[in-house]
Amino acid sequence: QSLKLTYPETLDRIKEEFQFLQNQYHSLKLECEKLATEKTEIQRHYVMYYEMSYGLNIEMHKQTEIAKRLNVICAQLIPFLSQEHQQQVVQAVERAKQVTMTDLNAAIGHQLQTQHLSHHAPPIPLNPHPSGMQHTSLAGISSASGLLALSGALGAQAQLLAKDDRGVHDTEPR
């Protein structure tokens, strides 16, 4: 008789443990689904940042090539200037090569103002390179908004250079 009483108690206990395990399984399943969605979101962000980085790297190489070509053009044209103008142009070219983070900040701020974005975001400060060296490359950018602003500034600079180049060709006699 005492054995008969223990069967229902044992069954109730097994039932309670099963419900506990089932609840635990359900909560773990929900947590796993939540982590899977977070993983998907993080992967999407990673791809977005990778694409931005790749585009910015290409833009940087393009701008470097433009600068090299413009430097060659200047070097070819300087001998045709008078001695006084040659010195002025050489000094101006040397000053142009001394780009500082302040200059980059000013250029980006100007670009943001021309795009009417200045009321949405403050000018983005560029920090020096973490190694302590001042690079004129894009290594100081640390935020996504900085990357976007800089890529926009570089794109606009390329457009201005292209317009200037067209303007030079338009004024030449045919």
From TrEMBL:
InterPro entries: Groucho/TLE_N, Groucho_enhance
UniProt feature coiled coil, ranges: 11-38
Protein's cellular compartments: Nucleus
GO cellular component: nucleus; transcription regulator complex
UniProt main location, coarse: nucleus
MF GO annotations: transcription corepressor activity
Gene Ontology annotations of biological process type: negative regulation of canonical Wnt signaling pathway
Domain Groucho/TLE N-terminal Q-rich per the UniProt entry, residue ranges: 3-117
Entry keyword set: Coiled coil, Nucleus
Residue segments, region Disordered: 118-137
Similarity-based family: Belongs to the WD repeat Groucho/TLE family.
PANTHER family in the cross-refs: TRANSDUCIN-LIKE ENHANCER PROTEIN, TRANSDUCIN-LIKE ENHANCER PROTEIN 7
Protein name: TLE1 protein
Organism: Urocolius indicus (Red-faced mousebird)
Gene: Esg1_1
